[in-house]
Write a structure and sequence with these properties.
Elements: H1 12-32, H2 36-41, H3 47-75, H4 77-97, H5 101-113, H6 117-128, H7 134-162, H8 168-187, H9 208-214, H10 221-249, H11 253-282, H12 284-302, H13 315-322, H14 345-374, H15 381-410, H16 414-433, H17 438-449
């Protein structure tokens, strides 16, 4: 019989269908993410348009996920989750057959509007766990997301390789995973919200006023600022990632999926196996400083990636790949490097620069969230984390558009260089304003004396 101090046991049999649905759903998203910029380039879109396209999905989520989350509180998790997944399935099918850039935008907007999957799944996990083991249950979602962020780009890369870089193929494969998710939700997933508990919560409400007020909080304001800015600079990075690799290295869609997969792998290794020991050794506050330093260093170093095409680069093959939707995208031919002095030095440089980026990003998210929970009254943790998620969504929605503007206005290296400078400024702000709480000081004194 377990003692009171024994760790609570999760009902993995009950949680497994939820986690499988999360994995399948995340792979449907991450399969298409590395290819989306090339989808837009094939329609002669500029980096600014690519940024707007990437922003459209999180922007719709920012406004509509709270609405669908509230509907799940009223009508149950299962019907809302099914509707969200049907929306994802239809949007990816539409993306696969899109023959205009307007349809590509429309497909991402539809997916964003119906994209309540994460909020609803988190609610289902909360329904299925006790308060003591809820953090562990929600942690399993993070681990499952990380696995999806590794498998998705890998499947996308294999699909592109097998179809001669047909951009529609990953969209159809992603739609297949979305359909599998619909089937699992319909026939395997069991409703977790009891009828007597429906309509009693309002935790999903979008609270703009609360977000503004939260920034003024002495204890949490800096943490929310860091959450927002971390996602904003990450959104800038995601928007210009593919055009930058194309300009500097001549990497096509397949090569970009490999970089996405490596970034996901680094994130999973750090958050899955290293974050616990590192937290015990250094504490969350110092990990925030380390994360910001590595994040900024990665951006700064990446901005100086030399222009050297990889040995297998062919401008003729790249033009043919970008022309699969019709005529060659003449406006974007300027992004293609010349076929002079190819090599692997620049590729190696870019890969090494990606490591501090991935490690820094992986350190920041759990460390900031942990500090938020430690500096919040226990009965307000849910709302505090909800506000953090709102700041994260806002940064994700705004960042890609800014990235496109910077790329268009100042060149390929500008978004990386500005991100590095901004992250350095955030590190200075964190040093100045993220002062230890009494509990933090005691913890650090214990560590330093051990």
């Amino acid at each position: 019989m377990p003692t009171q101090s024994s760790p609570p046991k999760l009902n993995f049999r009950q949680l497994l269908p939820i986690l499988v649905i999360v994995l399948v759903d995340v792979m449907g998203l991450t399969i298409i993410s590395p290819v989306l910029p090339f989808y837009a380039l094939a329609f002669d879109a500029s980096p600014l348009t690519i940024g707007l396209l990437i922003s459209s999905y999180p922007l719709m989520q920012f406004f509509f996920v709270p609405i669908l989350g509230t509907l799940s509180d009223r009508f149950g998790r299962k019907p809302v989750l099914a509707i969200a997944q049907v929306g994802t399935f239809c949007s990816l099918l539409l993306l696969g057959v899109a023959n205009t850039l307007s349809l590509v935008f429309f497909s991402r907007i539809v997916d964003g509007i119906t994209g309540a999957n994460l909020a609803t799944v988190q609610s289902a996990i909360s329904d299925s766990t006790s308060p003591r083991d809820r953090a562990r249950g929600l942690g399993l979602i993070g681990a499952t997301f990380g696995l999806g962020y590794i498998l998705g780009p890998m499947i996308s890369g294999v699909t592109l390789r097998l179809t001669d870089n047909n951009y529609s193929a990953p969209a159809f494969v992603g739609a297949g995973f979305a359909l599998l998710s619909v089937i699992l939700t319909t026939f395997v997933f069991k409703e977790t919200l009891r009828p007597e508990n429906r309509g009693k919560t309002s935790s999903h409400r979008l609270d703009i006023g609360g977000m503004i007020e939260a920034l003024r909080s002495p204890a949490l304001g800096t943490l929310y600022l860091l959450t927002f800015m971390r996602q904003l600079v990450f959104g800038i990075f995601i928007a210009v990632f593919a055009p930058f690799l194309l300009t500097r290295l001549g990497l096509n869609s397949f090569g970009t999926t490999l970089f996405f997969g490596l970034f996901g792998l680094v994130t999973v290794v750090v958050q899955g196996g290293m974050i616990g020991p590192l937290t015990q050794r250094f504490g969350e506050r110092r990990l925030v400083f380390m994360g910001l330093a590595l994040f900024g260093l990665g951006f700064f170093v990446s901005s100086f990636t030399p222009q050297q095409p990889v040995p297998w680069y062919s401008s003729e093959a790249m033009v043919a790949e970008l022309s699969q939707r019709g005529e060659a995208p003449s406006e974007q031919l300027a992004l293609l490097p010349e076929e002079t002095q190819p090599g692997v030095a620049a590729l190696t440089y870019a890969l090494l620069a990606l490591l501090p980026l991935g490690i820094g990003y992986a350190l920041l998210s759990p460390s900031i969230n942990s500090l938020i929970t430690k500096r919040t009254n226990s009965h307000q943790i849910g709302r505090a984390l909800g506000l953090g998620a709102a700041f994260m969504s806002a940064g994700t929605a705004i960042g890609p558009s800014l990235g496109g503007i910077l790329f268009n206005s100042f060149g390929p290296a500008a978004p990386y260089l500005i991100n590095g400078l901004v992250t350095g400024l955030l590190l200075l702000i964190a040093f100045q304003r993220l002062t230890p709480e009494p509990g933090d000081v005691a913890t650090e004194l214990v560590r330093s004396s051990s």
